[in-house]
Amino acid sequence: MSDEIERILRDEIGLDASTVGGSLIARAAQRRMSKRAIVSVDAYVKLLADDEHELQELIEEVVIPETYFFREPDAIADITRLALDAHALSSGAPLRILSVPCSSGEEPYSIALSLLAAGLPASSMSIDAVDISIEAVRRAREGVYRTGSFRGDFSVWRKYFAETAQGWRIDESVRAVVQVAHGNLLSETFSPPREQYDVIFCRNLLIYFDESAQARALEKISSLLAPEGVLAVGSADSFAARRAGFAPSSGCERSFLFRRGGSAAPSEPSAAVARRVRPRAIATPPARNRIVRDAAPRRRTAVPGARQPVPATSAGRDSASVLIDVARLADEGQLATAIDAGERAIREGAVSAELFSLIGTLHAATTQPDRAEACYRKALFLEPSHEHALLHLALLLEKRGESALASKLRSRARRALSFHTFAGP
Ligand SMILES: C[S@@+](CC[C@H](N)C(=O)[O-])C[C@H]1O[C@@H](n2cnc3c(N)ncnc32)[C@H](O)[C@@H]1O
User: Fold this and answer.
1) Residue whose CA is closest, atom 9 of ligand 1?
2) How far is the CA of 301 from the centre of ligand 1 (A)?
3) Domain boundaries, the chain
4) What number of other Cβ atoms are within 10 A of residue 2's Cβ?
5) Are 182 and 130 in contact (CB under 8 A)?
6) pLDDT 10s digit of each residue in the chain, 425 long?
């Protein structure tokens, strides 16, 4: 399939074919060409240049809308804590939050749920949510969710959802504080409803961009962020944020909250957040440590016939503390040292699927795909349904053109997720 189609997608939406795999793009283009009864790639490239509607249709085919409620929840807990810890309210203006990309809305609604449940009034927050996919925007506006959107124990949020024939409908009180819009973060005309934001969530998007698109996106975000504003990125996006001059926000290193060019004093709430939110005496659930949480045994239902996870052994050090140390080094940008520390711990007996998977991710980040693959395979030997290892190994195989195998791994990951996914909130 044409390099030209990959180039168009890279220029328009930042999509790096080498991250998602050229074959994914080729299959998407092939589907669109069949729909439009076009046989020549050159003719389709011409159509993409002339017809915005067709370009949008192709974008819908290639975007990865994977999301769920309270994904990487520590960032949401920390933002809620910062909002609540604020000491003074000078203006009474709402806390301005942008979620881009918002996909089908689970992320911005999770932020709203957390702030509202902590006791903040609806008038104290304004959450704008933007995504490039028209289908995702439609679903976010609709606010009706199926089981895949809920992972982990969701019982505490149950009261904010009503069961309907179509799925779980989010309560109007939550929907009302989130405004959803269509937009492309990389477009020169990208203009969310507000000129500046106190908090911007840009999670699990930069990983699909090449370096130049990451820089463009982060420049745009930087221009939209208030001087003391906070940027929340996904764990896998943090390298890009550092490269663009963002620094981890003190006390929030584990939740991947960043500020422009420096960090605030420990536990000090962001001035931008402090200015806007009235302190309340209601405590939020404490922010959990991401790595400790990940290292803890996860909720699982036994898969009939499947090998059971091998418990971590820990000669000398427990595997949770090794994970914390390795993740801390990685967060500080010391990737090689993090890999050494993890591999040393494994040699000393702190073997766990979680640790192999983490080292795999570090190898992938340092462009050592063979080593990354070996680590993900070891993680899967120990824990055959380890979702992170399954999904990331699938990505590596996809890049290598092994689409059939990659698709099998994705199905396994989906099955694994469904075993610890609730039937509803
Ligand atoms: C993996 S989801 C992440 C959603 C959410 N932030 C999360 O972390 O769960 C990625 C989303 O990015 C959107 N997207 C891709 N390129 C984009 C762009 N250039 N501008 C805005 N959204 C984009 C896709 O439509 C998709 O919904």
Assistant:
1) 67
2) 30
3) 3-62, 73-276, 290-419
4) 16
5) yes
6) 579 999 999 999 999 988 877 788 999 999 999 999 999 999 999 999 999 999 999 999 999 999 999 999 999 999 998 777 653 344 567 889 999 999 999 999 999 999 999 888 898 899 999 999 999 999 999 999 999 999 888 889 999 999 999 999 999 999 999 999 999 999 999 999 999 999 999 999 999 999 999 999 999 999 999 998 999 999 888 889 999 999 999 778 778 999 988 543 333 444 555 444 333 322 233 333 232 223 333 333 222 222 233 333 334 466 677 888 888 788 777 888 889 998 888 887 778 888 888 898 888 877 788 888 888 888 887 888 787 788 888 888 877 777 878 888 877 876 665 544 444 56
Q: CB burial class (10 A; 0-12, 13-18, 19+) of residue 415?
A: middle
Of ligand 1's atoms, which has the minimum distance to the CA of residue 202?
6
Residue identifier of the C-alpha nearest atom 16 of ligand 1? 13
Structure-token match 């819009």, residue found: 181
Domain 73-276 has CATH 3.40.50.150: yes
CATH superfamily assigned to domain 290-419:
Tetratricopeptide repeat domain (1.25.40.10)
Amino acid occupying residue 53 = H
- The angle that helices 41-50 and 52-62 make with each other, rounded to 10 degrees, is 110
Residue nearest to atom 12 of ligand 1 (CA): 101
Length of the chain: 425
Pocket of ligand 1 (CB under 6 A): 13-14, 63-67, 71, 100-101, 103, 107, 131-133, 136, 184-186, 203-205, 234
Closest Cα to atom 19 of ligand 1: 13
Does the pTM exceed 0.85? no
- Residue 224 CA, ligand 1 centroid: distance in Å: 18
